[in-house]
Design a protein that fits this description.
Order of helices and strands: EHEHEHEHEEEHEHEHEEHHE
CATH architecture of the largest domain: 3-Layer(aba) Sandwich
Strand order of the largest sheet: 1-2-3
CATH class of the largest domain: Alpha Beta
Distance between the termini: 39 Å
Structural class: alpha/beta
Shape: elongated
CATH superfamily of the largest domain: HUPs
Radius of gyration: 20 Å
Bound molecules: glutamic acid
Helix content: 25-40%
Oligomer: single chain
């Protein structure tokens, strides 16, 4: 089977170091396997989408010498497929409407949430929505058994979704489909055989595998790369306003990414052509040196 990998940025701003690491890791993994590498723009959440940033991300990827196979998919054009998947779950009694608001649930627990994170849902609407009027979300009825998988770098993972997120949202109250459902439908539609991304998304994987099983879709392999942090251990990323990557010095920046990924690129390649650096990186790509590493400090 041909290896099919992907990079799936959300167009919420320009590409930053953390997303360049995910792009590079997934690209090297695909090219080393002589497989295909696809790009999917996750513009699923219009309130968070920054106009122009999808084009900017694609242009930056080109400037860094990434070459994607097949046409770029935009999640904003995939609503019908998400609706079909939701209907399939509803038909199998695996999804139910929920009238609880985020603030009602937040009041029950007192946590700050990261991107893609949710509170554990205590199942208030499991047997029917508490309120039948007004808008409602759709939740996925999580399995009682644990979800287990072996991550390519982070090893054995086993999670009881009942205890972590509980029945999670797959279509939001505002009508938009949730990341968890969209990513599963799209990874299957694009025939992705391995997902390579940052370890900040590791905790989402059991939810995605549970949805794949419920929808009868194949489960790809997963490999979660260490997260780039600053000196204080804070994630570098859009939320911490990390600076956009500098494509004027694409070779130097890519060299830094390879160094961050512990590939030890030779010093002289800092001044090579992009093509030469990519050739070296593909030939020498060795993700195993990152085994069990969840975060690495990046000193710009
Ligand atoms: N769009 C997600 C993000 O930029 C990544 C999704 C994924 O790789 O599964 O955080």
């Amino acid at each position: 089977m041909t290896y099919r990998g992907r990079f799936a940025p959300s167009p919420t701003g320009p590409l930053h170091f953390g997303s360049l690491v995910a792009a590079t890791g997934s690209y090297l993994q695909a090219r080393k396997a002589r497989g295909l590498w696809l790009v999917r723009i996750e513009d699923l959440d219009p309130p968070r989408t920054v106009s122009g940033s999808a084009d900017l991300i694609l242009r930056t990827l080109e400037e860094f010498g990434f070459a994607w196979d097949e046409t770029v998919i935009y999640q904003s054009s995939r609503t019908e497929s998400y609706q079909q998947a939701l209907q399939q779950l509803i038909d199998h009694h695996l999804s139910y409407p929920c009238s609880c608001t985020r603030s009602e649930l937040q009041a029950l627990q007192n946590n700050e949430l990261e991107d893609h994170e949710e509170l554990r849902y205590p199942g208030l609407c499991r047997n029917g929505p508490l309120r039948t009027t007004g808008s409602h979300a759709w939740r996925f009825r999580v399995p009682t058994e644990p979800v287990c998988f072996t991550d390519g770098l982070q090893g054995e993972q086993c999670i009881h979704l009942r205890d972590s997120t509980g029945d999670f949202v797959i279509r939001r109250r505002d009508g938009w489909f949730a990341y968890q459902l969209a990513v599963v439908v799209d990874d299957a539609a694009q025939g992705i055989t391995e997902v390579v991304r940052g370890v900040d998304l590791l905790s989402n994987t059991p939810r995605q595998i549970a949805l794949q099983i419920a929808l009868g879709l194949p489960t790809p392999d997963y490999l979660h790369l260490p997260l780039a942090t600053d000196r204080t251990g804070q994630k570098l990323g859009k939320s911490t306003a990390a600076t956009p990557v500098n494509s004027l010095n694409a070779v130097g920046t890519l060299w830094n990414v390879l160094q961050f990924l512990r590939q030890n690129p030779p010093d002289e390649l800092q001044h090579a052509t992009l093509n030469t650096l990519w050739q070296w990186a593909i030939e020498h790509w060795q993700p195993d040196v990152l085994k069990n590493i969840r975060q690495l400090e990046y000193v710009a």
